[in-house]
Each structure stands twice: as structure tokens, then as C-alpha cells.
Design goal:
Layout (H helix, E strand, L loop, with lengths): L3 E2 L6 E3 L4 E4 L2 H8 L7 E4 L2 E8 L4 E8 L9 E7 L5 H12 L3 E5 L13 H19 L6 E2 L5 H8 L4 E5 L7 H8 L5 E6 L7 H9 L3 E4 L8 H16 L2 H36 L1
Parallel strand pairs: 1-4, 7-8, 7-11, 8-9, 10-11, 10-12
Antiparallel strand pairs: 2-3, 3-6, 4-5, 5-6
Helix pairs in contact: 2-3, 2-7, 5-7
């Protein structure tokens, strides 16, 4: 499979309908990876052939659309409270690798990080870069969106646009697996809500739970770190929505049936052997 490079629109200069020049960071990456004239690479969503390669730019010819790869069946958005240090970067990276389609950071009462609004664009630019790198690493060809950082009230308004909101809450006794199998399917627009290191305030939890389309769930009998809860919940949701448990169940039943018939066949052969031996 050809390597994929994600190039910003302002780093692409069109020379004709199917020939363009790539500049900037990704042109440097193509050079570093020692690509040559005639090599096929993927630029965003297109398979391209390298026509010319220099230190500062790469000229390519668009050949065809690249086949989509790595896109999850479920439309899952992760609403994640802003975490401190590198935890936020880690969660974003892993969410992309798992198949989450949209990531929305937000601030709630117990968020430890204090961030000035003027620093939002810089942080979002950093997160976008992490998303692009994760997409390239895992081979995803679809776009993963990092939305603007929201306040708690803004997040509540957005949650009303989803078919089902999965609210991971340490005080819940509802099984995530049962909720997903009974009330969700892969055609739904689903969100996953994960709180900060200190958890949600009780009033905040009540506001989220009061939404008609929200299901409060527990993912463990233990209290998990925010980053662990985010990755675990997304993994379970995507696993269930993509139907892997149904496939596993099918193969389990199939194997059990084979095992049953083998036992019958083996028992019959033993009995037949004993019968012949006694006759002799």
C-alpha cells in the first residue's frame, strides 16, 4: 500500500486539472522517506504519481481516488474534558487509532487545566497535527475532526444533536454492553462523554443525565483514570457497534456444533469397535 501524506490546502498549488505541486512539511517528509520520480503515493484522498521531486517541493500527477480504508462503521464522537499534561494528546491519538470520527474538548467545573481563550487556536492546531499523524500511522483515509473547545453549557447544547449519548459515570450501575445492545445500532449518531480527572460535579452529572437521549453507564467496578475511561469506553462502543460480538458468537456456536458432531461420531465408532470385538 502506498504511503499517505496529509497536505494542507494552502500547501497545494495546482498547475492543471490533474497536476499539482506540494510544498511545506509534507514535501519535506516525502524527501526524507527517499521517494523517487515514478513512485505512487497518496495525497489526502488521491493516488498520485511523483513527476518531479526537489528539496522544497514535489510535483505530482493525480491518477485516481484512493480506496477508503480504516473508517469505522459507527459514527462516534468523543466529548472529552480537557486533561492535564500529555494525557490529552494521548487520548486524542488513541481515539483516532480506534476509529472515533470527531473529538470535542470541553471545560467543566473540575478541570484542572487553566487555559486562556487566546491560547485555544494554538492548542487546536497542535491537536490537529496529532490527529493527522495518528491517521497516517493507522492508515485511515477519512477525516477526523477536532472541534473548538467548548464550555460545559455549549457541550450540553451539542449533545441534543445525537441519537444516543453514552455518559460514563462512576456512580452508575448500568452495564455499557447491555445499553449498547438494547438501545444502539451502527446507523445511529453516538457520542461518548468522559469527565475530567476530578470527575463531574453532581449537578453537572444530573444535567447530562436529564437529557432524553442520554444513557448513564458504568464500564468498571473500579474508578478509572480519565484517559483510561476514554479509551476503554470508545473501544467497547466501536467493538459492539461494528458487530464483532455477533461474529464471535456465530463462530462460537459453529465450533460447538462441530464439536458436538465430532463427539457423536467418535462415540459411534467406539461402540461399533466394541461390538465387532465382542462378535470376534
Amino acid at each position: 500500500m502506498a504511503r499517505r501524506f496529509i497536505v494542507e490546502s494552502n500547501d497545494i498549488k495546482k498547475e492543471s486539472d490533474n497536476v499539482c505541486v506540494i510544498c511545506g512539511t509534507e514535501a519535506h517528509h516525502i524527501n526524507v522517506l527517499r521517494h523517487k520520480i515514478g513512485d505512487n503515493i497518496i495525497i489526502n484522498k488521491y493516488i498520485c504519481e511523483i513527476l518531479d521531486i526537489k528539496k522544497d517541493f514535489v510535483k505530482v500527477k493525480i491518477k485516481e481516488d484512493a480506496k477508503s480504508f480504516g473508517e469505522a462503521k459507527a459514527d462516534l464522537t468523543l466529548f472529552i474534558a480537557y486533561l492535564k499534561g500529555e494525557k490529552m494528546d494521548f487520548v486524542i491519538q488513541k481515539a483516532v487509532e480506534l476509529g472515533v470520527k470527531q473529538i470535542v474538548p470541553f471545560f467543566s467545573k473540575n478541570v484542572v487545566v487553566k487555559l486562556d481563550k487566546k491560547d485555544y487556536p494554538k492548542k487546536l492546531q497542535k491537536f490537529s497535527k496529532i490527529v493527522d499523524e495518528a491517521c497516517k500511522q493507522c492508515g485511515r483515509t477519512d477525516n477526523v475532526n477536532i472541534e473548538n473547545i467548548l464550555t460545559f453549557d455549549e457541550m450540553i447544547k451539542q449533545l441534543k444533536n445525537y441519537d444516543t449519548n453514552i455518559f460514563a459515570y462512576e456512580k452508575s450501575h448500568n452495564s455499557l454492553k447491555e445499553v449498547l445492545r438494547e438501545k444502539c445500532d451502527s446507523k445511529m449518531k453516538i457520542s461518548c462523554i468522559i469527565g475530567p480527572e476530578g470527575g463531574f460535579m453532581e449537578k453537572e452529572a444530573e444535567i447530562i443525565t436529564s437529557l432524553k437521549n442520554t444513557e448513564q453507564v458504568s464500564i468498571s467496578t473500579r474508578i478509572l483514570r480519565a484517559e483510561t475511561a476514554a479509551i476503554s469506553t470508545c473501544t467497547i462502543i466501536l467493538y459492539e457497534m461494528e458487530g464483532w460480538w455477533k461474529k464471535s458468537l456465530f463462530f462460537f456456536i459453529w465450533f460447538k456444533n462441530i464439536e458436538y458432531f465430532c463427539r457423536i461420531w467418535y462415540t459411534k465408532n467406539i461402540l461399533w469397535t466394541v461390538y465387532i470385538w465382542n462378535r470376534v
